[in-house]
Design goal:
Strand content: under 5%
Oligomer: single chain
Number of domains: 1
CATH class: Mainly Alpha
Number of helices: 12
CATH architecture: Orthogonal Bundle
CATH topology: Ribonucleotide Reductase, subunit A
Bound molecules: fe (ii) ion
Helix content: over 70%
Structural class: mainly alpha
Distance between the termini: 55 Å
Radius of gyration: 20 Å
Shape: globular
Length: about 325
Amino acid sequence: MNMMNKVIADSEFDVSARYAKCIEISKRINWDIDEDVIRGREFDVSQKFLPDTLSKVEELESLSKEEKKFISQIQGRTYANMFGLVERFINTKVLEIGQDYNFGDQVALEALIRFSQEELKHQELFRRIDKMCEAVMPEGYSFVPQPNDVAHVVLSKSTWAVLALTLDIELFTQTHYRDSIDPMENLSPLWKDVFMYHWREESQHAILDELEWVRHDKGVTAEERDQGVDEFIELVAAVDGILQAQAKADTDYFVKACGRDVSEDEAAKVEKSVLGAYRYQYIFSGAAHPHFGKVLGSMITAEQGERIHAALDSIQ
Ligand SMILES: [Fe+2]
Ligand SMILES: [Fe+2]
């Protein structure tokens, strides 16, 4: 074996070992929705759901302590629903790319099938969480985007763009848990557990997203990649459209259910703050993730990177 062949063989071994490691961890940490996560508990509305560092609720100075807590619960419910939403298209794409391994690497195939099973379980968990929120929160909440409608729009774009968005999402999930949810005291312990268990399985997903995106990237032409960059920008714009609609729905719900008259001016300030929080949660915290920047930067040109930055700068 010459040196070049040896380097290729070693790197193939590394990749294969990473799929195997994901399976090993996935088996070890596997959890059950009722036995491990919910454990017969209900949500306690005397506690916040989403931490302040994500909800940005402390910037709303006109709101009382109780009202800020209510906003954190509305945003928390939307947070769970947003994951249920994106997991519909993520799972569909994972099942699609997994077929590349049907008659090939059976370890990679198993890793992707476990990924898919976990996303199906997470969608069930988030449907349960929404119902449990419904049981303790005032009537009138609505989650605007429909998972299948969003999945059809996202999956109409190239695999390169969908995998870019997927890695972005699965990396920010981890940052949110580690940097914001885990360290915050006085957060609902049940809500904290939901995202601790979710984070544990998402850690493997982000590794698999990266492996699959890098593998896919090697097979596309420069023109296809360039189109992928434009489509990734279109997907981020589509996410922003969803966030604008949901920020409006969540503000309308807050105004109707908070128990006092809220002026139009104050409602506009709440909506602006909620939209800012959602853009931070679902767009900027992922775009600023150092590892996402590293993987993306290894594939694209400086001009393509500038195009993405300009698109992100235009969202405000
Ligand atoms: Fe998930
Ligand atoms: Fe995931």
